[in-house]
Structures are given as structure tokens and as C-alpha cells.
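User: Hi! I'm working on a homework problem where we have to compare a predicted structure to a textbook description. Could you give me the structure for the chain below?
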Amino acid sequence: MNPFLDPPAWVGDPAHRFLTRVGSEPWLRRLRSGVWTLLVLACLAFLVAGADRPADPHLTNQVLPGFSPPTTAVSHP
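Assistant: Happy to help. Predicted C-alpha cells:
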């Protein structure tokens, strides 16, 4: 095991076993596959539910209530 990834000496025996197991190759493979699965599910959720909102967006010149209309000022040095 990598000495930089070894659990610290002050952790208890159950924590030491857990941290040693987490650093193993099967655990990292499982974590990697879980991350990829989550990424694929997020992309599918975006395509199915989120990609069509708002259905028909359009721009307007109306000012939102509570906000002043935008102004433009040009100043010369």
C-alpha cells in the first residue's frame, strides 16, 4: 500500500480496516463504476425531463416589477 495513503496511527482498529479496504483496487473500481452510472443517469434525466424547459422561450421589453428600466450613459474623458 502507498505510505501516503496509509491510515493514521491514531485511528481505531475498525476504522483502520475500513480505510485499508477503501484504498483497495476492487473498492476503487466499484466507486468508479458508481460515478459513471451517476453521470449517465444525470444525462438521461437532463434529456428526458430538463432539456425541454421552458418549452417556448421568448424575449420581451417589459421591465420586471420593482426594477427600474436600464439606462445607458456615455461619458467622455
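For your comparison, note the following. The mean pLDDT is 79. Residues 25-50 form the longest helix (26 residues). Good luck with the assignment!
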